[in-house]
Specification:
single chain; 304 residues; alpha+beta; Thrombin, subunit H; 2 domains; six-stranded antiparallel barrel; 8 helices; 12 strands; MreC_beta-barrel_core; MreC; transmembrane helix; membrane; Cell shape-determining protein MreC
Length: 304
C-alpha cells in the first residue's frame, strides 16, 4: 500500500504547474527566449560595456555624450512640463476667475466709494459695497441667432436670481433671464431686445447701446449728440443710470463714426470688448440695493 501511494504522488514541479499553469508557462517562455537570444543579448551587453569605456576614458566623447544627453533630457523635461501645464489649465482658469472676481469687487468698491467727480461727494460703505459677484462657468452659448443666450452652471442654490447682470473679465455679457436650482439662462447683449445705458467716456455723454442683430462683435451706440466730439477708439462703459451693472464696466470702443444729415445724433459703431466665441468664465452681479431702488421708482409710476 505504501509503495502504491508513493508511486502515485506527483513531483513538486508538476504540482506547481497544476496550481499556476499560466504563470509557469510564461516563466518557461521567458527562459526559452533568453536561451534562443543569448548571443544577441551578449552582443548588446558588450556594446554597452564598450560604450561605457569609450565615454569614460576619452575626454572628447565624454563631453559630447554629456552635452547630447543634457540636451535631450532638457527637451524631455520641457515636453513633460508642457503636458503637465496643459492638464492643469482647467484649475488655472478657475483660479484666475476667482482672482478676477476678488479684484473686480475691490475695484467696484473703490469706484463707488470715491467716484471721479469734481464734487466732494463720498458714498457711504453700504452704497459702495452694494455689488457682489459670483463666478460661473459658461456651458452653452450662441452667437449666430437674432436672440442669443448663454447657459451658466450657477442657479438659485448659489443665490442667482432673474434680472441680475452678468459680466466677464473684459466687459458686459448680459442679464439673467431664467433660473433653476443649479443652472441659469442669460440673455446675451447679442439680443434684439437688449438695451444698456452707456457712457461715452471722452465726450462725457450718456447714450444707449444695443445690438443691431448682424455682427456678434459690434453694437450700436445711439442718442449721442452730434455736437459732442467723438473719435475712433473712444471707450464706451456702463453708466451710473442702471441698477443691473456697476458703472464703469467696459462695453467696447468706438470703431466707426457716422453722421446722417438732418439728424441730431451720431450713428456710432462699437467694437465689443468681450469675445463671445471664446467666453468661458463670467461673473454674476448682485446689486443688494436693487430691490429698494425699484420700489422707490415704482412709486413715481403709481402717482402718474
Amino acid at each position: 500500500m505504501l509503495a502504491l501511494g508513493a508511486s502515485t504522488r506527483r513531483p513538486k514541479r508538476q504540482q506547481f504547474y497544476d496550481l499556476y499553469p499560466p504563470t509557469f508557462r510564461r516563466v518557461e517562455q521567458l527562459f526559452a527566449f533568453i536561451a534562443q537570444s543569448r548571443n544577441f543579448i551578449l552582443f548588446v551587453l558588450l556594446e554597452v560595456l564598450c560604450f561605457y569605456f569609450v565615454v569614460n576614458t576619452n575626454n572628447y566623447w565624454s563631453a559630447s555624450f554629456f552635452n547630447t544627453s543634457n540636451r535631450y533630457a532638457a527637451q524631455m523635461l520641457a515636453w513633460s512640463n508642457s503636458a503637465r501645464e496643459y492638464t492643469n489649465l482647467r484649475q488655472v482658469n478657475a483660479d484666475l476667475a476667482a482672482e478676477n472676481k476678488r479684484l473686480t469687487t475691490q475695484l467696484t468698491q473703490r469706484q463707488q466709494g470715491s467716484p471721479a467727480a469734481p464734487t466732494a461727494y463720498k458714498a457711504d460703505s453700504l452704497f459702495a459695497n452694494r455689488f457682489q459677484f459670483t463666478v460661473a462657468k459658461v456651458i452653452n452659448n450662441t452667437t449666430t441667432l437674432a436672440n442669443n443666450t448663454l447657459t451658466i452652471d450657477k442657479g438659485t442654490a448659489d443665490g442667482i436670481r432673474p434680472g441680475m447682470g452678468v459680466i466677464s473679465p473684459t466687459g458686459i455679457v448680459g442679464r439673467v433671464r431664467f433660473c433653476n436650482e443649479h443652472y441659469s439662462v442669460v440673455t446675451s447683449i447679442l439680443h434684439s431686445e437688449f438695451r444698456v445705458s452707456a457712457r461715452l467716456v471722452k465726450a462725457e455723454e450718456i447714450g444707449t447701446a444695443r445690438w443691431p442683430g448682424i455682427d456678434p462683435t459690434r453694437m450700436t451706440l445711439v442718442d449721442i449728440s452730434r455736437n459732442k466730439p467723438v473719435s475712433k477708439g473712444d471707450s464706451v462703459m456702463t453708466s451710473e443710470y442702471n441698477s443691473v451693472f456697476p458703472p464703469g464696466i467696459l462695453i467696447g470702443r468706438i470703431s466707426e463714426v457716422r453722421t446722417q444729415p438732418a439728424q441730431p445724433f451720431h450713428d456710432l459703431s462699437v467694437a465689443l470688448s468681450t469675445n463671445f466665441s471664446s467666453l468661458l468664465y463670467v461673473y454674476v452681479v448682485d446689486n443688494k440695493q436693487a430691490e429698494q431702488q425699484s420700489q422707490v421708482e415704482k412709486q413715481i409710476d403709481s402717482e402718474k
